[in-house]
């Protein structure tokens, strides 16, 4: 097998994206120190949001680079990881021709972004244990497959995919392999960010929406080779991450210990919740989880869901998802919230 260093990323990029000239903003053209800024038609009075944000979020990226052990040039920041998912598909998949390959079940946004961009979707069913079924891959993908999305830990199943199988996909596939690690902080697995040097076709997604507690800010992280990142930067909206989000995420990164405390507490609560759920009559199976939610198979998911909503408790009904018959997805909450849930389920 050829080494991965032979992959020329440019051969994977859509031709129009490769040759286009990107928008050049005022803040792109002048980056130095100055006192008088009359270049961007801004209101001069401090609101204090009268100025445009840094288009490339240099400060946030430098903090993040140090934390993750990568170079700032290997980071793209977007309006949620959803922006990175959309841009990857738009940069690499030719509409009405190319395909992405996803597992079934998995996070819904890969298919939505593919559909919006008229990109074909190829699916491989996970095993009954929700792991990758590598034997099914050869039948699922073909010459039009440009990106494989692997979500690990996976949503809505909650488990990590086998690391060995992911590595086999990385070794054998010559398009992009995107590993969505939105829930990696809740698992005991190493991130694939550390493998970027080995695999030029690897892209890793993480987010401030889950462990970091900042879903409302909308900030997603994408780690890849400098070459891939520069393509995403070329096609993104010029000011895709606003000033407030940059300020508050920087503050969060400077206080990363807070995230670690939340994760510890959530993992404690997760163990308690798993024990309590296993003791309930209506619960048939509690699936193993490496994330901040638990997939639970109950006797009648629709009835349980309705009963809980009547009691003002909202969980996610995943019973119509492949391999998730009669399954509910339950996010780990505060101790009080989890107790309220268990109390209600005991009375069912
Ligand atoms: C929640 C989640 C995300 C986060 O998306 P954002 O746009 O960053 O909020 C990404 N991937 C998966 C699998 C998720 O479950």
TrEMBL record:
Q: Which Pfam families match?
A: Aminotran_1_2
Ranges for domain Aminotransferase class I/classII large come to 48-345
Question: Which cofactors go with this protein?
Answer: pyridoxal 5'-phosphate
Q: What class of enzyme is it?
A: transferase
What the entry lists under CDD domains is as follows:
AAT_like
Q: Does the keyword Transferase apply?
A: yes
Keywords of the record: Amino-acid biosynthesis, Aminotransferase, Histidine biosynthesis, Pyridoxal phosphate, Transferase
N6-(pyridoxal phosphate)lysine occurs at which residues? 210
Catalytic activity annotation: L-histidinol phosphate + 2-oxoglutarate = 3-(imidazol-4-yl)-2-oxopropyl phosphate + L-glutamate
NCBIfam families for this protein:
hisC
Describe the subunit structure.
Homodimer.
What name has this protein been given in UniProt? Histidinol-phosphate aminotransferase
Species name: Chryseosolibacter indicus
Designated gene of the protein: hisC
């Amino acid at each position: 097998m050829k080494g991965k260093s032979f992959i020329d990323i440019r051969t994977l990029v859509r031709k129009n994206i490769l040759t286009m000239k990107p928008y050049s903003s005022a803040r792109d053209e002048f980056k130095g120190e100055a006192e008088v800024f009359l270049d961007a038609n801004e209101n001069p009075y401090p609101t204090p949001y009268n100025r445009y944000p840094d288009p490339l979020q240099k400060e946030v990226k430098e903090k993040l680079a140090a934390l993750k052990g990568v170079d700032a040039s290997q980071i793209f920041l977007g309006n949620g990881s959803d922006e990175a998912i959309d841009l990857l598909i738009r940069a690499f998949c030719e509409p009405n021709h190319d395909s992405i390959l996803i597992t079934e079940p998995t996070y819904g946004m890969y298919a939505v972004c593919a559909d919006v961009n008229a990109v074909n979707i190829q699916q491989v069913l996970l095993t009954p244990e929700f792991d990758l079924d590598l034997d099914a891959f050869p039948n699922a993908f073909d010459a039009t497959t440009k990106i494989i999305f692997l979500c690990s830990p996976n949503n809505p199943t909650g488990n990590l995919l086998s690391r060995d199988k992911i590595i086999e996909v990385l070794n054998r596939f010559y398009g992009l392999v995107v590993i969505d690690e939105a829930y990696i902080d809740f698992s005991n697995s190493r991130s694939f960010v550390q493998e970027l040097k080995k695999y030029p076709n690897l892209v890793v997604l993480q987010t401030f929406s889950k462990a970091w507690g900042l879903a409302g800010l909308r900030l997603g992280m994408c780690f890849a080779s400098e070459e891939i990142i520069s393509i995403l930067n070329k096609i993104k909206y010029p000011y895709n991450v606003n000033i407030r989000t940059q300020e508050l995420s920087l503050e969060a990164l400077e206080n990363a210990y807070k995230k670690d405390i939340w994760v510890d507490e959530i993992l404690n609560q997760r163990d308690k919740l798993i024990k309590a759920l296993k003791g309930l009559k209506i619960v048939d199976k509690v699936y193993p989880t490496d994330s901040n939610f638990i997939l639970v198979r109950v006797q009648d998911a629709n009835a349980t869901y309705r009963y809980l909503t009547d009691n003002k408790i909202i969980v996610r009904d995943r019973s119509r998802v492949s391999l998730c018959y009669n399954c509910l997805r339950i996010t780990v909450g505060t101790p009080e919230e989890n107790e309220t849930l268990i109390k209600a389920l005991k009375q069912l």
